[in-house]
Structure formats: C-alpha cells, structure tokens
Amino acid sequence: MQRLLLSELLRWKEKEQRKPLLIDGARQTGKTYLLQELFGQGFKKVLRVDFLESPQISEAFNDSLTPEDVLSNLELLTGIAFDPATDLLILDEIGECPRAVTSLKYFAEKAPQMYVAASGSNIGLLDSFPVGKIEQYNLRPLTFREFLIAANEPAVLKAYDNAVNSAAAHTKLFDKLTDYYFTGGMPEAVNTWFELSDKSILERVAAVSKIHADLISGYSRDFGKYSGKVDAALIESIFKAVPSQLSSVMDESVKRFKFKGVHERKSRYQELEHGISWLEKCRLVLKNYPLEGTPRSPLGAYKKDNLVKLFMLDVGLLNHMLGVGYKEIKQQGYEYKGYVAENFVQQELIALGIDPTYSWGDARAEIEFIISDQEGDVIPIEVKSGKRTRAKSLQSYISKCDPKVTIKLTGTQGSQPTETKNFVCPLYYCEHIIRKLVIT
Fold it and tell me: Regarding the domain with residue range 6-138, which homologous superfamily does it belong to in the CATH classification?
C-alpha cells in the first residue's frame, strides 16, 4: 500500500539539515506504517519506540533532554544500538509523553543532521508544542487515487492519472468510486478489501464492516481517555450527530450543523464548541464554513465560528455509522445520495491541504464548496451525485458573483477536456481539477 505523503518525507530526508518530522492524524490512518514500513526502507536501521504500547520508554526523557542523553537512554532501554548518521528514530504516539514532545525542540537545535520522526493521534490536544521546531504533516485516510493504487489495476490507474474522458474509463472509475464509498480510506479496511478479492462479496463486505465497527468503538474509547476537561458524553453525542445530520439531507446541499437536540440540556454553539473543537483537533470531523454575500479572498476573514458544516473524516465510516450497506450503495449507483458525494469531495480537498473548506449560500441557492486560487479569484464547486446535472444554484452564483471559472462535479462522464471556463467533471476527478485550477 502506497501513501502519497511519502514523497514529502523523502524530500525531508535529502536535506542537509532538518527539523524533526511530526506526522499528525486520526488513529489508524497508517502513520506507523508510513514511517516504519515505507519511509524506513531508505535507512540502514529503524529504531521505533511507542509510548502508548511501552509507557516505560518515557524514562528516557525523565532527566536531560539533550539528543545525546536521550539516545543513550533509548539504547539502554531497548537494547538497540543507534547510529545518528544512518538510522531513523521514530517516536510513536509521542503525545503520551509530554517531555518527548519538548525534546523535539532540542533535536532541532542541537542535532539538525539527525533523522527524527514522531507521530501521534492526539497532537492537537497537547498543552505545549515546540512551535517552529518541527516539520509537520497530517496523514488522512487514503484518497481515491491511493485507493486505486491499492487496487493494483494498472490500466485503471493509468486512465485516472491521464484523466481519460471515455465511456469505458467512466464505467470502471465510477465502479471503483462506489467501492470507495463503501470501504472508505482507512488503511486496514482498504487492505482487507483487496486482500480478499478472491473471496465472495459477502465475506469481503463482512470483513470490512467489522473493521469499521472496531474503529468506531476505538474512537469512542478515546473520548473517555483523552477528553480531559471536555465531557466525553458530549463528544460522543456530537460525533454520532454528524452522520445523522448529513443523512437528513435528501436532494439539497448539506446544511449547517444544528446544535439543538445533539446533547441533553445543550442547544447553543457555545455549549458544544469545546466538543466540536476536540473532534476536529483529533482529525475525526472536518469543518466547512458557509459564507454569504459576494465571497472574496481570503475566505477565512468572513467565516463565523458558530455557522459551520461538519463532515466525517472518512466516507466509509460515515456509511457504516448510518447502516448503509454495500449492496445499497452499488444499486443506487449514479443516483446515490448527495451527502456521500459531498463528504467525498470534502475529504479530497482536505487531503490536498485545503483546510478548512468553505461553501456559499443565499436565500434560494447553495454552492457546496468555494475555493480561492493563487490569484485570489474565488471558484465555485457544485456537487451533483447523479446524472441530473442542471445546477440552478450555480447559475444563481454566476449571475450574482460573475466568477472567472466554475466547476461542476457530477456522476456523469463530464464535458470534453477543451472546456476552459465552465468545467463539468466526474466526481472521481475532483483531485485533478483542483490541482489544475487551484494548486498549480
């Protein structure tokens, strides 16, 4: 299984001097696998310590935090020799050891030639942090392209990478997209789905569903373990409310998150704010801010914290929490519910570093996403999950805001590549069109 973030880590390795790496991400998104199995292949040796699995390792940081002393202590505790010139040190679940987090500052200042990488699933909850002393990346669930790489079907991946616009390519890619809607991008679920490709569909579905259930249970246990001053029951109520509120939308765009009825005796944003923030810091929910009027760059200047949409970190977990089965997803095909497509697009945008995202609306129209490009022009993105591509909201936006470029993501094959202003693309090419118009 390949992860696209690996290319960034390899660039980091080639630097003459470097700050320690820190990989943040929700639990079970593949941080350890990325660092140890993929990135670690390029080193003579990998010394990995896990503070959650082996709490006693924290003793290495009890006294001095200088790199020399820490390494000496780690060698004593693990019995493994470490060569700073050739080996990679991985500090896994570093959030469990605050002094190890602090030590990253000294690795950056006193040993910039060393290869030190840390990871954690509760990084956002830390009280103190070595700002400016680390190189940080967020590892999300697998994107659709990473899912296609895992599928190991070269012709399909080639068609995707070349953004082929043909009936044959569309049939194959949309079929893979609906598979992705079911499995999502959590590495264990994706790996199991393809490892069991020679088994019956019932066996594959059952195995992936079990993984989803275990993941949700694991997150729920974390609510109590890491919630601190925030009510764990409140966090769980919000977490469960996100899928139910998304699915309450039928043919319209996803609405803002409603605070009333989420948790007993709490009905205002101020009462749920800490729980929402906790879930976002742990990368379990994704934020989208609806804007009104004529949107201008920077979009963040016009957001209101109490006016927010919440999406799930993973579309597969979203469908599992709603009890939506594989057969239902595949049978509905092109007409599948819009909230799933919106959650998919949200994930693709976040994986591209567009975080948070924004949307637009007025009294009669809603645009699911708006993005500011490098020139400051705002690009509207209309999401249509089915074959019907009439976009009244997009026409309303065009008449009111006069954008230079528009994007419509649909369940159809889309328009021809010669289009230069009003792009109509299949949903699965979301990453392509955003890279073309926004990032590059």
Answer: P-loop containing nucleotide triphosphate hydrolases (3.40.50.300)
